Amino acid sequence: MKKITTYIITAILMLSSVTANAASIPRETTPLNATEEQIQIVENLIGDILDEVQADRLGYALAAGYANTRIRKAVIANQTNGNGYGILSPIAQNAIRYYRDILLRPDYYRQTEEKLKSVLADLIVEVQNGKDYNTAYDEARIKIYKAANASFNPDTDMVGDFCYWNVPPVDSAEFTVARKLLLQAQK
After folding, report:
1. Which letter, b or e, does each residue of 147-174 get, where b requires 16 or more Cβ atoms within 10 Å of its Cβ?
2. Which partner for 52 in 11, 57, 144, 164 could form a disulfide, CB atoms 3.0-4.6 Å apart?
3. How far is residue 30's CA from residue 149's CA, in Å, rounded to a whole number?
């Protein structure tokens, strides 16, 4: 019964979208624990804000503020099917940050995508052939670190608490683009 209710609420939220052609949340930007239902809820709440960000009419801070206000009001009004601010807000923030970053560095994203297509070529093919996405993404992260520093060794450099890892500096956009490529391969 709960599943049916969840699907009905999700369908209603999708139909009551703020704008008909509102921008979607790129799946490669969502927190790894976000569900499709949570992503749909956020898309319906802030799709028009994402449109404004993509059109360069809203910067990050203002867009994030508007999005957080809408999400907070929806949570308080029990319009999020029990999903809380703690997961819905990061979905929105990541999407806004991603769209702003692409707008500010389009050439970097194009170059990064081309570079990662070759660095991750074997993983992309493996995912197309059925390899588990999460396993492939973990392997992709290691390949990205090794591309940045050939002497990187995950067996010694990624030991213990995350804050003590000895990983090379890598732009977070590379991990987002890697997720994008692997998600496309999964389809």
Report:
1. beeeebeeeebbeeeeeeeebeeeeebb
2. 57
3. 27
Phi/psi at 147 (nearest 5 deg)? -65, -30
Instruction: Report the amino acid identity of residue 35.
Output: T
Query: What Cα–Cα distance (Å) separates residue 23 from each residue in 47, 56, 84, 106?
Result: 5, 13, 22, 18
Is residue 115 a contact partner of residue 143, using CB atoms and an 8 Å limit?
no
For residue 123, the tally of other CB atoms under 10 A from its CB is: 22
DSSP string, 95-122: HHHHHHHHHH-HHHHHHHHHHHHHHTHH
The model's confidence at residue 22, banded by pLDDT at 50, 70 and 90, is confident
Nearest to 28 by CA among 185, 168, 156, 158: 185
| Euclidean distance between CA atoms 77 and 145, whole angstroms | 44
Q: What is the pLDDT of residues 117-170, one digit of tens each?
A: 999 999 999 999 999 999 999 999 999 999 999 999 999 998 989 899 999 999
d(CA 144, CA 10): 36
Name the pTM for this structure. Answer: 0.82
Q: Which of 145, 4, 16, 154 is nearest to 74 (CA)?
A: 16
Distance CA 152, CA 133 (A): 23
Task: List the structure tokens of 102.
Answer: 């692409």
